[in-house]
Amino acid sequence: MTNDLDFLSTRAGFNTALRHFKIVSRYLSEMSEGENLADLINDSLDEKEIGRHQIKSIINALAVDKFGYRYISHNLEENISEKDRIENISNSISKWGNIQFIMTYYNPGEGVFVINPKKKSQWEIILPLISDELVVIYANTNIQDEKAEINRNIAESAIRDFIQILYKKKVKPKKDYLGVEEKKEEAPVTPAAAPRRRATPRYSVQVTNELFHNGNVEAWKKIIERINDINALFKWGKVKHGGLIFFSVVGENIKDVSKLQRYLFEGASPRFEAFLKGGIGKVLDLF
Question: Which domain holds residue 265?
Answer without folding.
Answer: 197-276
